[in-house]
Amino acid sequence: MTTQQLTEQIRKKKSFLCIGLDVDLNKIPKHLLTEEDPIFAFNKAIIDATHHLCVAYKPNTAFYEAYGLKGWKALEKTIMYLNVKHPEIFTIADAKRGDIGNTSRMYAKAFLEDLEFDSVTVAPYMGKDSVEPFLEFKNKHTILLALTSNAGAFDFQTLSVNQKELYKQVLETSKTWENSENLMYVVGATKAEYFADIRNIIPEAFLLVPGVGAQGGNLQDVCKYGMSSNVGLLVNSSRGIIYASNRGDFAQAAAQKAEDLQKDMAQELIKY
Ligand SMILES: O=C(O)c1cc(=O)[nH]c(=O)n1[C@@H]1O[C@H](COP(=O)(O)O)[C@@H](O)[C@H]1O
């Protein structure tokens, strides 16, 4: 999917919501545990109830890898279901990969070619040759960690390197890489006061913004400083939506939470 198509979807649905499919078998309704594939059954119900309210889904691969082969199969079924039933929806493999070039090439193949995700999250720590293999895929996107939502973001990302914060170096240097038009960036909703500076460096690039809901980030602040002329935002919520209820009404409860966020997003889209 191109970023232009993504923006069109956002304007059409009046939503830049990304729903995080971070499935924990200890948190899903008990009755699903008797299903042959409880993780997929949960995801399918959530997708069926929420697809009209969001423009993206983001399974975090940790929650699938934790269940071994069964987890990986559930991830495969989930992405296939999305690609067949909702090809207009943007998909993110939240895998936070990155390694020496020839290893990154295999990670890129796994997520962008084999599983056919639209994008994958990547850590920039190993530099240019660890990221460029992901960027080679046409109309696929590499979402680089820039300024993350957690407290540990201040351990390295905001430290000064050559008189400039490290996350700013990541933004500036990555713009010079080949196929950099395929880059998007992760910026945490909990770091809203940094968005204006970030937009000075990357005015139009899409930002994946996790951290609203369970982590306390504020949607209005994110939009005020983060929205660009092509919207340029995908705001993620995982636990706040998918675990709204752990009873028989879990999918409807998730849809209600997603709708609350979508309505707030529609208001923001009118403002900017
Ligand atoms: O790359 C991410 O998506 C990510 C980056 C970041 O800085 N912070 C962050 O929370 N995430 C992910 O976004 C999701 C947030 O989940 P909730 O806090 O439950 O909404 C999890 O899958 C995290 O791994």
From TrEMBL:
Signal peptide bounds: none
CDD domains xref list: OMP_decarboxylase_like
Alphabetized NCBIfam families for the sequence: pyrF_sub2 (TIGR02127)
Pathways per UniProt: Pyrimidine metabolism; UMP biosynthesis via de novo pathway; UMP from orotate: step 2/2
Gene Ontology molecular function terms on file: orotidine-5'-phosphate decarboxylase activity
Enzyme class, UniProt record, top EC level: lyase
Protein family: Belongs to the OMP decarboxylase family. Type 2 subfamily.
Pfam families per UniProt: OMPdecase
Keyword Lyase among record annotations: yes
Domain Orotidine 5'-phosphate decarboxylase: 16-254
Keywords: Decarboxylase, Lyase, Pyrimidine biosynthesis
Alphabetized InterPro entries for the sequence: Aldolase_TIM, OMPdecase_type-2, OMPdeCOase_dom, RibuloseP-bd_barrel
Catalytic reaction list: orotidine 5'-phosphate + H(+) = UMP + CO2
Protein name listed in UniProt: Orotidine 5'-phosphate decarboxylase
SMART domains associated with the record: OMPdecase
Enzyme Commission number, as recorded: 4.1.1.23
Residues annotated as catalytic: 96
Taxonomic lineage from the root: Bacteria, Pseudomonadati, Bacteroidota, Flavobacteriia, Flavobacteriales
